[in-house]
């Protein structure tokens, strides 16, 4: 190879094949690059300097924050200030994680300024994760931002102004460790386009009143106060409902029971339902359940926390199953059990407790299984009434018991294709 040919090969290898791509393609590539590395592309050429500066998504997440471990708080502040100062155009997506960086209230004004800047630049997707002290109060700029379609907040104080017109374009709202402080008697949030609402580890949810007629997904988990469900009565499009609450059912919960019953009955589109043992206890306290056959005709996935030492739990769970003719997936989390209740054993051993076949049921999972007689009879009942069953997974809470395994294998099965898996329980917290 002569000198001219070598020069041609080198020049060919150094050809820039990326800069000529359409801007939307380049932006898509930058989505997968950390901000620190994306900023370095600005030194490639004059064109790349402006490509990075106009990139509409700024993700300053945990990965970005890790670069400042062991450094001064001012270094983090200066870096974020520089990124925002150099940016040109709209900021469609902004993610900010300040955990462990700002721990004093005197620093919150800095976050307020950053939020004000992005809300003035057309932000649609905003994620803010602050330290775990729950003291950062959201600035008014968030409540006044009309462009928001996605809002995710962690460890904040949610205190809307009065009056508050709501989030008119918000589609998804995810709140974790958030404390609601009402301006009046209730914390009213009007979000006519809201489709997804997640409330996890929140406080003050008893003051929450969300007006969202188009809501489809509602998740309420591990919060410190009860969620008043009355405001969701007009949400006829709910397809996913997950409710978990660490509380105690007492005589004061009658109104809560009635409201939850009405919500279930008035949710004709419900497809996925998860209730922990608190809500099963709440609903099962009624002597005569309100549910009728085919009430939950769209429901295909049911996850319940069950106390097998209580007749009311077992009878209500079977009532729910009977009311779900299209149920395909059933997940039972054993909350407690006992072999002392003869009435429960007699009830489960009676064919009339579940006369109808579960024609659509294909998958069953039971975790925290402790091999009580009530649990074994429940498994036997499901196997004998599920002609379409493909797989049943039983996760034993203690070590595997060979005698129990043999007994499970001997249970008659309505489905010739049904496989039974019996193993040691591992808490993966996945439905």
From TrEMBL:
Q: Which residue range or ranges hold the F-box domain? A: 15-67
Please name the SMART domains in this protein's record: FBOX (SM00256)
Q: Which Gene3D superfamilies match?
A: Ribonuclease Inhibitor
Superkingdom of the organism of origin: Eukaryota
Q: InterPro entries from the xrefs? A: At1g61320/At1g61330-like, F-box-like_dom_sf, F-box_AtFBL13-like, F-box_dom, LRR_At1g61320_AtMIF1, LRR_dom_sf
List the protein's name.
F-box domain-containing protein
Q: Which organism is it from?
A: Solanum lycopersicum (Tomato)
């Amino acid at each position: 190879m002569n000198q001219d040919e070598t020069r041609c090969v080198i020049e060919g290898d150094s050809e820039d094949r990326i800069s000529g791509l359409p801007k939307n393609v380049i932006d898509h590539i930058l989505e997968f690059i950390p901000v620190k590395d994306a900023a370095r592309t600005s030194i490639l050429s004059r064109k790349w300097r402006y490509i990075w500066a106009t990139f509409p998504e700024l993700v300053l997440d945990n990965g970005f924050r890790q670069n400042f471990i062991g450094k001064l708080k001012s270094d983090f502040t200066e870096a974020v200030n520089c990124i925002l100062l150099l940016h040109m155009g709209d900021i469609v997506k902004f993610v900010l994680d300040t955990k462990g960086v700002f721990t004093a209230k005197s620093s919150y004004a800095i976050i307020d300024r950053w939020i004000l800047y992005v809300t003035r630049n057309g932000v649609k997707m905003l994620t803010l994760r602050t330290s775990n002290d729950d003291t950062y109060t959201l600035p008014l700029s968030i409540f006044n931002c009309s462009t928001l379609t996605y809002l995710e907040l962690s460890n904040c104080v949610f205190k809307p102004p009065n009056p508050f017109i709501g989030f008119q374009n918000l589609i998804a709202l995810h709140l974790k460790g958030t404390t609601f402080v009402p301006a009046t008697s209730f914390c009213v949030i009007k979000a006519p386009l809201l489709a997804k609402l997640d409330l996890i580890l929140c406080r003050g949810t008893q003051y929450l009143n969300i007006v969202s007629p188009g809501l489809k997904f509602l998740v309420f988990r591990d919060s410190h106060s009860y969620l008043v469900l009355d405001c969701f009565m007009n949400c006829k499009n709910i397809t996913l409902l997950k409710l978990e609450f660490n509380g105690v059912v007492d005589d004061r919960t009658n109104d809560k029971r009635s409201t939850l019953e009405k919500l279930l009955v008035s949710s004709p589109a419900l497809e996925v339902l998860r209730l922990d043992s608190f809500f099963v206890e709440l609903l099962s306290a009624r002597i005569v359940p309100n549910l009728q056959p085919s009430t939950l005709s769209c429901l295909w996935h049911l996850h319940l926390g069950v106390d097998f030492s209580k007749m009311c739990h077992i009878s209500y769970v079977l009532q729910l199953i009977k009311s779900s003719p299209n149920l395909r997936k059933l997940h039972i989390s054993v909350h407690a059990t006992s072999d002392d209740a003869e009435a429960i054993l007699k009830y489960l051993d009676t064919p009339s407790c579940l006369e109808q076949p579960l024609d659509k049921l294909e998958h069953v999972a039971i975790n925290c299984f402790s091999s009580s007689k009530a649990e074994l009879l429940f498994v036997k009942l499901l196997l004998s009434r599920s002609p379409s069953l493909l797989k049943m997974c039983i996760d034993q809470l203690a070590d595997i018991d060979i005698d129990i395994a043999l007994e499970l294998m001997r249970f008659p099965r309505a489905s010739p294709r049904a496989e039974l898996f019996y193993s040691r329980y591992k808490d993966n917290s996945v439905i």
